[in-house]
Design a protein that fits this description.
Elements: E1 3-10, H1 14-24, E2 30-33, E3 50-51, H2 62-81, E4 85-86, E5 90-94, H3 96-112, E6 119-122, H4 123-129, E7 137-141, E8 145-147, H5 149-162, E9 166-168, E10 171-179, E11 182-189, E12 192-203, H6 209-214, E13 228-237, E14 246-248, E15 259-262, E16 268-271, E17 275-277, H7 289-299, E18 308-318, E19 330-332, H8 334-337, E20 342-346, H9 352-366
Parallel strand pairs: 1-2, 1-12, 2-9, 5-14, 12-20
Antiparallel strand pairs: 3-8, 4-8, 5-7, 6-7, 10-11, 11-12, 13-16, 13-17, 13-18, 15-16, 19-20
Helix pairs in contact: 1-5, 1-9, 2-9
The protein binds flavin-adenine dinucleotide (FAD).
The site of flavin-adenine dinucleotide has 42 residues, from helix 1, strand 10, strand 18 and helix 9.
């Protein structure tokens, strides 16, 4: 007899776990699998751990909508479950008139996304509050914060297990075939091949989501987008941080610029930059230091370069190639691909962590659960 579950979620990153947690309230048997030993070993533990405000994304995009909704849900979730987080606020800094005009546009864009809490700080305001910071003006975003992503994922897993759902690691999705009431899913669990039947199949495979989709046998290839890998590197800054808030330059193409962020333990780090790569490789080259120093010194001229050390990197699963403009999250359900019970998530780059609880609700609605 083939084992049967209500839902299989492929991928135990922050998005897969949030979806599994949400579905576990309504469905009896929710199974979330990951090819790695534990949960959240890929992009979900290689990011800035920033709770974004939802300022920049185009109006009505999923990124704008789910980030703004997700931010509030995430703060509440953290509060309810004692997950370490801090609503530190961020300063979006400008140098000179052209960048100040970008800030002015950002206020308008943010308002379109229902983010109405930005305040304008002048150079003299900044000199008083942040003497080490060099900028001619800044926007304060008070709803931006930081979170301990690992504790958040642990809380999601606890919620899944409390609702009798299950996480199984070292288990790779191999393929799925549609039948008349769901999917027959072939899994490889530590070299043992097994088949499990599910009514709902969620592809939350992050960097591997398109490979997973290729192996859903009845899914038309035209629904599988091209995914690009865009690596972002971080350098940590040893010793005490000169800043108590997050410091962001004006955004650049494909990323938010080399910003200064703090983790929950108070460690200051700079990054990420953007580098398109062909294969999954988390190298952080020492050679990047000069570029980091130049970018950081624009807003922090007294940077002590000796204290700046290569730290880690993460890879964004992007739908936009190096020459493309903005691409939104893609979350496909039956209305798009015609396969009842299947949801594919593609291009869940930033702000995927912030949006995760709102994405989970959206997926649940897409499946009418
Ligand atoms: C440099 C960087 C900085 C970022 N900063 C922020 C930030 O500050 N704030 C924010 O909101 N967002 C940020 N993000 C985005 C955020 O990290 C991601 O959107 C989020 O982690 C995506 O989660 P996920 O669950 O979709 O993917 P992942 O965490 O990648 O999880 C996917 C999982 O699927 C598993 N999997 C894949 N294939 C298979 C298979 N065949 N079988 C079984 N399992 C499989 C993988 O092992 C993996 O664990 C950042 C991203 C990057 C790269």
């Amino acid at each position: 007899m083939m084992e049967k579950v209500d839902a299989i979620i492929i991928g135990a990153g922050v998005v897969g776990l949030a979806i599994a947690a949400k579905l576990s309230h309504k469905l009896k048997n929710v199974l979330v699998i990951d090819k790695n030993t534990s949960f959240g070993e890929e992009t979900s533990s290689r990011n800035s751990e920033v709770i974004h405000a939802g300022i920049y994304y185009p109006q009505h995009s999923l990124k704008a909508k789910l980030c703004v909704q997700g931010k509030e849900k995430l703060y509440q979730y953290c509060k309810d479950r004692n997950i370490p987080h801090q609503r530190l606020g961020k300063l979006l800094v400008a140098h000179g008139e052209a960048e100040e005009q970008c800030l002015a546009k950002t206020i308008k864009q943010a308002a379109l996304n229902h983010v109405n809490d930005l305040t304008w700080l002048t150079e003299s305001d900044l000199k008083k509050s942040n003497p080490e910071l060099h900028a001619t003006a800044a926007l304060l975003s008070p709803s931006t914060g930081i979170i301990d992503a690992h504790s958040y994922m642990q809380a999601l897993l606890a919620e899944i297990e409390y609702n009798k759902g299950q996480f199984v690691g070292k288990t790779t999705f191999v393929k799925a075939n549609k039948d008349n009431c769901g999917f027959v899913v072939t899994l490889n669990s530590q070299d043992e091949i097994m088949q499990v039947h599910c009514d709902h199949l969620i592809n939350a495979g992050g960097l591997h989501s398109t490979n997973i989709a290729e192996n859903i046998n009845d899914l038309a290839k035209s629904h599988i987008p091209t995914l690009y890998y865009c690596r972002g590197h971080y350098f940590s800054y040893q010793g005490k941080s000169p800043f108590t808030q997050l410091i962001y330059p004006v955004p650049e193409a494909h990323g938010l610029g080399i910003h200064a962020s703090l983790d929950i333990g108070g460690q200051l780090k700079f990054g990420p930059d953007t580098q398109y790569i062909n294969d999954i490789d988390y190298e952080v080259s020492d050679a990047l230091k000069a570029k980091f120093v130049t970018a950081i010194q624009r807003y922090y001229p007294s940077l002590d370069t000796e204290r700046l050390q290569p730290a880690y990197s993460g890879i964004r699963p992007k739908l936009e190639g190096p020459k493309d403009g903005f691409k939104d999250f893609v979350i496909q359900n039956e209305k798009v691909h015609g396969l009842k019970g299947l949801v594919n998530l593609f291009g869940i780059d930033s702000p995927g962590l912030t949006s995760s609880l709102a994405i989970a609700e959206y997926v649940s609605e897409q499946l009418s659960i």
